[in-house]
Design goal:
92 residues; 4 helices; Glut_rich_SH3-bd; SH3 domain-binding glutamic acid-rich-like protein 3
Length: 92
């Protein structure tokens, strides 16, 4: 299992940067593999993120397990707080 995280390397929002970093640090600490897709690199990648989530009013980070949409930062944060991270990431 390898997660995919749509993120942005270019953001004027400190909050977005902190959210992305929190997810990366958590995954690294748990030794969970992930791929990063930088939506700032191409408008096509941003459109791909919108298409895969089914939403157009979203911001990175957005998390996927394969083609399965796991959620955004707030959903990740709630899963950590509720100790339901495996369920969030859909890890068996």
């Amino acid at each position: 299992m390898v997660l995919t995280i749509y993120y942005t390397s270019v953001s004027g929002s400190r909050e977005v940067k902190q959210q992305q970093q929190a997810i990366f640090q958590y995954l690294d600490s748990m030794k969970i593999k992930y791929n990063l897709i930088d939506v700032a690199a191409s408008n096509d990648l941003k459109e791909e993120m919108y298409r895969k989530t089914g939403k157009t009013e979203i911001m990175p980070p957005q998390i996927f397990n394969g083609d399965i949409y796991c959620g955004d930062y707030s959903m990740f944060f709630d899963a950590v707080e509720d100790m339901k991270v495996k369920e969030f990431f859909q890890i068996k």
